[in-house]
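Run N-acetyltransferase domain-containing protein through structure prediction, thanks.
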Amino acid sequence: MNNQFVFRRADISDIDKLSILCQKTYHESVVEDLCVCYPEKGLNYYLHSAASPEWFTNTISDPKRAVWVVEDQTNGEFVAYAVAGSSSIDAIPHPDICSDKDGALYRLYVRRDRQSYGFGKQLMNVVLSWLEEHYHGQPIWLTVFSENLKAQKFYTHYGFSKVGEWDFPIGDWKDHDFIMKREANTS
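Sure, done. The structure for N-acetyltransferase domain-containing protein is below.
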């Protein structure tokens, strides 16, 4: 990463910019790129809960979770972010998960205009290092939209494989998601 972009852990002062970035990247990647036509009420409900400043305040304040951002130093805007933590926090419905013992990647999004800069790869490497440090010897979990082939390919490159499926609620709408698992790195 060059000097224009700073990669760092997020703090409470970042919650408003994180909320804006979360809404923007979710809309770009799911609604626009994958052409998912959510009912407006359900999408608004989801974004106002899962992308709210309150959600980010709780997440950043939780010692079992971590949030990272990539910030453009020229204008102070965030261009990418990731969220990881204990697999027990946002219950992924799979019988093999060991609640507080396993780690999970909850989000990794890069703004459309900043994709192909390597930010996703750099975020993933840091997230995996953090998860392996905090959940050593345990598997890492994530969920991904079943139609997001680009993300699935990205996660497969990092050793994740599909181990299940579930319907993720967006208001009254249900996204069909895949559950992916990366076996523990015991080295």
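The domain at 5-137 is CATH 3.40.630.30 (Aminopeptidase).
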